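Hi R.,

Here are the chain sequences for the assembly we discussed:
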Amino acid sequence: MKSFGFHSPQTLEEVFALQARFGEEAKLVAGGTALTIMMKQNLVRPSEVISLRRLREFRDIRSENGTLCLGALATYSEVEASPRVREMIPVLAETYHHVATRRIRNMATVGGGLVHGDSNQDPPSALIALRARFQVMSRAGTQEIAAEDFFLDYFETAVKPGEILAEVRVPKPAPRSGQAYLKFLPRTADDYAMVAVAAAVTLCADGTKCEDVRIGLGCLAPTPLRAREAEEVLRGQEPGPDALREAAEKARKITGPLSDHRGSADYKRDMAAVFVRRALDLALSRAGYSVGKSA
Amino acid sequence: MKQEIRVNVNGVDYAREVPTGRLLLDFLRYDLGLTGSKEGCSVGVCGSCTVLMDGKMISSCLAPAVFADGHRITTVEGLAQDGRLHPVQQAFIDHGGFQCGICTPGQVVAAKALLDANPNPSEAEIKDWMMGNLCRCTGYYKIIESIQKAAAVSREEQP
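And here is the predicted structure of the full complex:
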């Protein structure tokens, strides 16, 4: 791996000062599991690396007025083991637990994984379904970006040079809600998924209809996707088997995966529809609703 | 570009100047001569470079050595105490937990981390924990059995 100027700031102001000094020459690094691979393969060759490993901020996992706040420097292991995460939004602990291997999860950080901007990763689609908002800081102040607006293209996010992702905020799901995150792993348990689907549903007061629904898709396009048309099929409706099938079809239509060693594009799109149906079925059953046969 | 790092490896303090592009794995193997940790896949998947940083297992092929500055690293060479093998090492020998041996240092270090965190793991917990350590010859039954036996021995030694 090519060498680089290495900086270990301890305060946020030092981070901003280094970013201002080096501009686009500098890369921020936290856990380094993604960036190191890209640097080893010469896909990225930063002349300066600003390590956030000594930064004191952005490490806590806390709750604030019913919102779960994940510091960007919390590791995946810390998220999956956090009693607060497990209590408030168990599907998020499940999602982080199913990323790669424990060695990776001990290093990789919430913020680092998101800023990496890889739609094959697990948390982005789950966070879209869970209505997460990302706090991005710069010297000019803090802006909040919805998860679904954060991912712009392959390895490209809304975080610009001079900015840093500070915290991920996830609202605690309403009563009568259920969530699911499913990944299709045809090769090995630690591989990227071929297809990943996150679904979050909230039932109306009498429990017969979908009051609200969110669907996030991973691995199926240059960015993680929110399947809005699929959500519209179910919003305000009884989520029976036919409605789920129709929603799955709508979700399939917005996907544009690449053919690769995990499967052909056509097969992935077919599996996207299958997994949308299964994720909705599981989320609904966790909300206390039984879809009935053949969902 | 070089940088001085201070790192404790297997209980010994080192202060060394390393190129910033030096991986922790290469620092251990070529600068310190600790060749137990192996390079397999080189992308964090196979587990043969597993080491502990402050007690937590990581892929040393995915960490620049400068990341270890100020931290405590444990490699397979650090497990035996006073010439006596760690219970995990002894169990791998006694119960056939390896054949060719290239994955073994990583398996042993990962298993030690497991027993540190959970002295009495179920078979399912062992499989979940060891999922990222690949073996191409023994298969996994003997590895799981070795870890179960090591856990039993450790519990007897430290009731």
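Chain A touches chain B at residues 1-6, 8, 32-33, 36-37, 39-40, 49, 51, 53, 77, 100-104, 106-107, 189-190 (CB under 8 Å). Chain A has three domains: 5-48, 61-171, 177-286.

Let me know if anything looks off.

Best,
T.
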